Amino acid sequence: MNKKDLIELKLRCLYYGIYINEETMNKLQKVDTHFVQGIFSYHIQDITYKIPHEFIMETGIVTQIRYNTESPCEIIYEEEKFFIKDKEKNIKVNIKFPRAPKFYEKLTSDGTKMYKVIQLAGKDCLKIYTSNYCEFEKLKSVCKFCTVDSSRRLQDVVYNKNLKQIVETFKEAKEEGYYGHVMITAGTYPTEDRGLVFISEVLNEIRKETGLDKIYGSVSTVPPKDMKYIETIYNAGIEYLTFNLEVYDEKLFKKYCPGKDKYIGREHYFKCYERAVEIFGAGKVRSNFVAGIEPLDSLIEGFEVLAKMGVVPTVTMLSLNEKNQENMGKDFKLPDIEYYKELYKNLELIYRKYNMKPAWCEKCRTTSLEHEGKYFL
Questions:
Q1: Contact present, 247 and 294 (Cβ < 8 Å)
Q2: Checking DSSP bridges between strand 285-291 and strand 311-317, what pairing results, if any?
Q3: Which site in 74, 104, 140, 202 is 20 to 30 Å from 239, CA atoms measured?
Q4: What pLDDT was estimated at residue 362?
């Protein structure tokens, strides 16, 4: 099967989700892979089983699993092998699952299992959620599309990690060869610095304990109230800084991101982008968008505006479940799949125009096709 067909299959799996029957589900429980639920859940329907977060197709294409009993895409088990099958396209592709790292079962000095502190994505991306807390939940102004609430039942993690837990786990993961880059997410702290001071302490301690000069990867949080903390996090040695605007259209941003709109402000995002680019440099600052919320023209405009500023636009494909569908509104519907093909095509053109590289790497970007836009041109 050619690469373009596999890329389209990944898109369909993300768009429609993936069905797994009970017999196959039982087989999956015995696979040597990682089952830890991160901060967000992308499952379209409720699920009681723990299932792998991702699978790997031919040519190394890594795809997230979004459970949906009504999807035409299904993971099946035949002749002692797993396959992804698309019934509508009459495609069947052999798949495998990334192996569970050894550090998952090791303990920190306070007796915490390390998988509860840092999770692995793809081949060598270490996902560090310093806190799974969002202040906008307390303020009853959480983003309408957010799935943190939906994922809590499946989570088996430490909600607020301390510095020692993170550093010890990182060192162990690095020694096992799993550090290629990091994705550090701060949650949403009710502080002036929005967690950047604590993350800076973590990064500085990691560098001290490992001898690393820089930490490859990104810190993702909401913009700090005082922009002086952007320099604080830069001095801690992180490669990229990410402030996720999520929705570009001003009215839709207000509607779907009420907490970010009221307590941070869209204008403050852009001021922080400008300052971050001054400090980190063009192409070293990022903003993610949730693709599927706003009209395509608006989203592409947002890509262009930010790229012109030196900010790399990225996307995560929106997934609707019962909870966030209720929050978004019963009349809200995802655009058709052609919307996403056009989106990725235009994102690729903007990357080329501004000489930008996609965020993350192909081996860990399971929720998007930023690397594969050229296949939609």
A1: yes
A2: parallel
A3: 104
A4: 78
Total number of domains in the chain:
2
Confidence band for 365, pLDDT divided at 50, 70 and 90: confident
Strand order, beta sheet including 91-95: 19-20, 73-78, 81-86, 91-95
Same domain for 183 and 319: yes
CATH code, domain with 127 = 3.20.20.70
Question: Where among 79, 95, 111 does a domain terminate?
Answer: 95
Structure tokens that stand for 152 in this block: 């809590």
> Which residue, 246, 339, 253, 251, is CA-closest to 287?
246
Task: Tell whether 212 and 320 lie within a shared domain.
Answer: yes
Does residue 95 carry a pLDDT above 90? Answer: yes
- From the CB of residue 53, how many other CB atoms can be counted at a distance below 10 Å? 24
Residue (of 13, 111, 2) closest to 55 by Cα position: 13
Question: Given the structure tokens 């880059």, which residue do they identify?
Answer: 181
Cα separation of 221 and 235, whole Å?
17
**What confidence score (pLDDT) does residue 153 get?**
56
pLDDT digits (tens, 9 = 90+) for 42-73: 889 888 778 888 999 988 899 999 999 999 99
Mean pLDDT of the chain: 92
Helix 228-235 × helix 196-210 angle, to 10°: 10
For residues 57 and 119, membership in a common domain is answered with no
Q: Do 61 and 139 lie in a common domain?
A: no
Same domain for 21 and 162: no
Dump pLDDT digits (tens) for 206-219: 999 999 999 999 99
Instruction: Output the six-digit token pair for 114.
Output: 């390390």
| Sequence-separated (6 or more) residues with CB below 8 Å from residue 150 | 41, 43, 321, 323, 324
Q: DSSP string covering 263-314, please?
A: HT-HHHHHHHHHHHHHHH-TTSEEEEEEETSS-HHHHHHHHHHHHHHTEEEE
Last residue of one domain, picked from the residues 42, 77, 95: 95
Q: State which residues form the domain around 39.
A: 3-95
Give the pTM: 0.94
Does 299 lie in the same domain as 226?
yes
Pair 108, 68 in one domain:
no
87 with 120, same domain: the answer is no
